[in-house]
Amino acid sequence: MKLEAGWVPVALSASIEAGTSAGAVVDGSEIVVWRDNSGKAHVWEDRCPHRGMRMSFGFVRGDHIACLYHGWQYDTAGQCRYIPAHPSLEVPQTIKVPTYASEEKYGIVWATAAAEASAPEIDGLTEVTPVRSLYIDRSADDVAAALRESGVTDVGLLQVGDDRLLVALQSISQNKAALHIVIAGAPAVHAGAKQKHYAVWAERLRFDLEQKAEVA
Fold first, then answer.
1. Do domains 3-112 and 128-215 have the same CATH topology?
2. CATH topology of domain 3-112
3. Which of 34, 55, 160, 169 is 20 to 30 Å from 76 by CA-CA measure?
């Protein structure tokens, strides 16, 4: 799914610590996911307006993220606030990084460019335990079909005995996708052996899908 079409999972919340950033790709669009020091996650286009450097290569300082190339600093709304080479300059309002709406739910960072899209709602899913993000060299359509065969519902839920998983699918490119996987329930209950168990399950799914691609 493209960002313009609705809410897309882009990272596990646990993988983006305060004061860090990471690059990602959604259906060919490069984005940066970063978390300010207050703990809020942000999702932007991964490009500094100055010289096109990836913002994901930059560094977070408080509630600003700075480009690695020339140190231009941007606030949480994407507006450039400081240019080190011209410290007294009142930065023009036109210097701004395009941003996406973002929200954290179910242990996952979601983003969208759709003005009227509703954030995902899954009944009964409150506390979660992160498993992992997994990258697969197959199209999102192929991965979605394999998930359906495994019993995953349209909203990404999978019941395995007494356990319930959320398996959120992200399209990266024509032949690459990602899964962001969490277990429904508190880490105090599921951390450790169950995390490892479902990480292995995901690895097997990836292996089977990529093996099918090689045979085809």
1. no
2. Rieske Iron-sulfur Protein (2.102.10)
3. 169
Tens digits of residue pLDDT in 107-128: 999 999 987 777 788 888 889 9
The matching CATH number, chosen from 1.10.3470, 3.30.70, 2.60.120, 3.40.390, for 128-215 is 3.30.70
Distance separating alpha carbons of residues 202 and 205, to the nearest angstrom: 5
Q: Which of 48, 38, 29, 184 is nearest to 112 (CA)?
A: 29
Alpha carbon 158 to its chain centroid, in Å, reads 20
Q: How many C-alpha atoms does 146 have within 13 Å on its Cβ side?
A: 23
Q: What is the dihedral of CA 208, 2, 36, 106, to 10 degrees?
A: -60
To the question of pTM greater than 0.70 for the whole model, the response is: yes
Say how many residues make up the chain. 216
Question: pLDDT (tens digit, 9 = 90+) per residue, 35-52?
Answer: 999 999 999 999 999 999
- Distance of alpha carbon 193 from its chain centroid, rounded? 25
